């Protein structure tokens, strides 16, 4: 879920409803052409998404 959201946000995928296989292929291709480890991208996207959610929840009462 987080990887899909980050991939959509950084324009790796155009449609957030694309199949998991398409998301995987496009993410691996984008990482490969950029010289970035797809595994590290996956880990970073998950970490970013998870911690962003925590920040939102922690600050929800301020909204």
Outline the structure in words:
It is a single chain. The protein is mostly helical. It has one domain. It has helices at 2-9, 20-34, 38-59. Helix 1 crosses helix 3 (38-59). The longest helix is centred in the last third of the chain and has 22 residues, at 38-59. It is elongated, with a radius of gyration of 13 Å. The two termini are 25 Å apart. The model has no long low-confidence stretch (mean pLDDT 87).
Number of strands: 0
Number of domains: 1
Q: What percentage of amino acids are in beta strands?
A: under 5%
Give the distance, in angstroms, between the N- and C-terminal Cα atoms.
25 Å
Briefly note the structural class of the backbone.
Answer: mainly alpha
- Uncertain residue segments: none
Short overview:
The protein contains three helices and no strands. The protein has helices at residues 2-9, 20-34, 38-59.
What brief labels describe this structure?
single chain; about 60 residues; mainly alpha; 3 helices; about 0% strand
Helices and strands in order, then pairings?
Elements: H1 2-9, H2 20-34, H3 38-59
Helix pairs in contact: 1-3
